[in-house]
Design brief:
The structure holds two protein chains of two kinds.
Chain A lengths: L2 E4 L11 H15 L10 E5 L3 H4 L4 H8 L6 E5 L5 H14 L5 E9 L5 H9 L14 H18 L9 H26 L14 H6 L2 E3 L2 E2 L8 E9 L1 H7 L4 E10 L9 E2 L17 E2 L5 H14 L4 H4 L2 E3 L5 H10 L8 H7 L26 H5 L3 H17 L2 H5 L11 E8 L4 E9 L3
Chain B lengths: L6 E2 L2 H11 L1 E5 L5 E5 L15 H8 L4 E5 L7 E2 L13 E5 L3 E10 L12 E7 L7 E5 L12 E6 L10 E5 L2
Parallel strand pairs in B: 1-2
Antiparallel strand pairs in B: 2-3, 4-5, 4-6, 7-8, 7-10, 8-9, 10-11
Classes of the chains: A alpha/beta, B mainly beta.
Amino acid sequence: MVTGGLTKFAKAHPSMDFRLMVKRAYDYALKDIPNLTADRIDGTRISYFSDHFSRQLKAASMVQDYLGMNPKGSVRIEWGGATGGECFQAAYEAVASGRMDVCLGAGYETMSRVATWKGNEFIALASDTNFDFPLGGFYTGYYALMVVRHIYQYLRLTKFAHVKDEREAQRLAIAEGSRIMSLVSVKNHLNALHNPYAQYPKRLTVDDVLKSEMISYPLTREQICTMSDGAAVVVLCDEARAKEFTDQPVRVIGVGTGTDTMRLADRPFGRVPLLPHESPKDYEDLPYPGVHSFRAGRAAGREAYRHAGITDPVKELDFIELHDAYASSEIQTYEDLGLCKYGEGYAFTERGDPFLKGIDYGFPVPNAGRIPVNPSGGLIACGHPVGATGLMQGVFAFWQLQGTIPKHFGDATLQLAHPKRGAIHSHAGTGSAVTVSILERGWR
Amino acid sequence: MRPRPPTYEKFRDVQAELEKSGAAIFRDHDGVESLVIKYPYSINYIHSYAEDSPFFLGLAEGKLRGSKCRRVKCGFVFATPRSHCMVCGSPTEWIDLPQKGRVHSWTTCHFGSEAFLKETPYNLALVEFAGVGSVMLARLKDCVESELYVGMPVEARFEPNPKYSVTDVWFVPSK
């Protein structure tokens, strides 16, 4: 990867249509490395999620011509919430296969074109329309079902095992889980205070998060990402050209993808696919994935780690930009990606491992800086213009590895000290598809 | 000649104007003006339940049908039916599921998609059945958020005037 760019993510960008948003992000990316000119780009991969939001089929063709890319090759990428992550990997594959020397990956979403609850309906059409959608068609509801079971499995049956009354035990466990999820929400919103691209930067307390509107029990408004307009682009190329374009290229050293059933109800109760640092004994009695964990995330992480030669992710990664559509799914994903064992996500959060050092979150974070997750603020605070989101993560990770966050953000707070390697994680549906890509500093 | 639409600097105000007159102008920080309009979009679909049809016809007869893999060595039982086994790929056969089960997980939705907003709050539950390998998503009625818990015994109820939708079945707490 040699450059990237993005627009600020916003509730609405009425003065830019999708073509102009992508163009702005693209111009920013090219301006950053003057040695790369448009004629050097061999083709594009263009991503947006929903034809319903666009109501313009073949919209990627309009991006392609607006950027002046005709008659170069292009293809539209769509894979639900993981659309941006898939686009990143499609651009990677175009270069890695030798088909292109230089590939532009560009993505956008314009979700402001419909009212929020209509938008929720469009998103819910990415659930089975025979068996799931007619029951209430609501993604926050699906994620609430998953986290209630996650809390049951990993708090009720452990920390609250001593409570005799079943309902009381479950209420206590949910209250505890909600409190810990709120720590994630505080972290991501607060990190974003230093990110000028973020849609909802703010300082919150755990209490603010818990007392924000209940959307689907136990998930509150501040624990959920919102709809956004925005665009992001990345440029990937082979190694020889990378050095010609920039002194600070970033190498893509691992890609992984995974899938699971479209319907939550069909998820099996089997065994955990292990990561190198785990043992079968860790999970002897754990029905997996059920609805509490994302098998697709585990599969994507496993493939990407194997490809990159990573055997202990916390030690070998310096940060992760993770698809936190919900505070709950950020904690579930810590476990899928092996940042901690299954069942340890809540304790891992409380110890502060995924927090940044040097930021006052309003509560103690003893392990802060161990493996910062969503230093940018993630989806919860940056916004989630679906087709752009996974590419946004790529851009933030790229700047982080280059050490150019201070230049691009105008604020050095979020810049980690000399990060060597980071991961980006993009997630679709109720976990029906996930991508993980690993990026590494590509110069000495 | 139609008068020029009114200009607003807040998108909220643009949205409000669209409700009234269908057109408005948005002026951004840089003074750039953009014309915003509203138009409707509706459509009727002709949808076949195809191989899932027996499930929906069963609901109309008060039957809850799952499917079981025909291969004896597999025999996986699905609560949410499918006509081929996800484990081994063999065809499945229709079976009657028990109409009593337990809550595997649950939530109360206080918001929903536009189509379901008027029904809020409503409960969703994944229901598990003894001897069945997967679960089923359904509405849970006749109970409120504070009464729900994982493991709660529930039983099926059927719509007397079927709509041929998965909403023709729902669950209530077992007495």
